[in-house]
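Justification of computing resources. Each target in the renewal requires a structure prediction run like the one illustrated here; the chain below, 309 residues long, is used simply to show the kind of job we budget for.
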Amino acid sequence: MLVKMRDPALSNPFVVGEPISGDSLFIGRQAIFNWLLEQSKIDGGSTPLILAGMPGIGKSSILKQVMSGRLGEGIIPTYVDLIDLSSESLSSFLWSIAKSTMRSLELHGIQEPALEKRLLVLRPWQAFNQHFWQYIPQAIGERLLLFAFDNYNALISYGRDYDNLAAFRQRLFSLFDSQDNVRILLTLTGRIEAFDPISLAPFQNARYLRVPAFTLDEATELLRQAGSFPIFSDLSAYIYELTGGHPGDIQRLCHTLHEQGRVHKLRQITIADIVFNLDNYFQPRDFVTAIYRRKSEHSIQVPERPISD
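Resulting structure tokens:
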């Protein structure tokens, strides 16, 4: 018996090119949260934690979950995108840090300390420390303030901006080296072993964790949660093998499958539909994983029985 796709009037549940901000399509990663919580309790605020991995593997989505309180009440998270900060002046940089911090503290019922932007005009470092930063430990008490810095690659360069970005990294180090109850979490695209330690300085001694691809069970659970089309065991296995479990590639492929089903009013999605989409709507550069090489390694078979209602 054929199982109908979900109501075509509903929006496409799959997310392309953006982090997952809610809970409905965020799957797994509990081991990573356990690691972050364990590592954040280790003394040494100036030693950052780094989540490294391929583009689209889910690093920013993990930060979004951290911001939603996934690490518990003892952690006050603050999100900062380093792409937005890397070209700022010292006063603008410190003001951005202060704004993000004040916003996070307010969400946790902490109104002080407060800082006015005008105070950072003449002597930014002195004003920032005198009027704001030195009061952070008293304000947060026994809790930890965790800065989730996304896109650390924005501070790495081997070209003409090398000296400027090195100075920027030193600013971050100097800022957080002075606080025992402040932690830094960075996301890094790529393998950390591939970077010259000098390009990471002064954070080259970071404790890091590689964000892995999904397991087959996690990939299948993502498809279940999306509820876009009936999930057959052969279908989910084929999608998993094509993408290598890469979350971003799964989302990208299934986003197009959903649109195909909606436009053509399909009653189900088959492996043949996947192959058709790959041949007609995608280029190899659209995917992080070697999806086209894997496509030829699997025979095309129509699934027989759904594994979800």
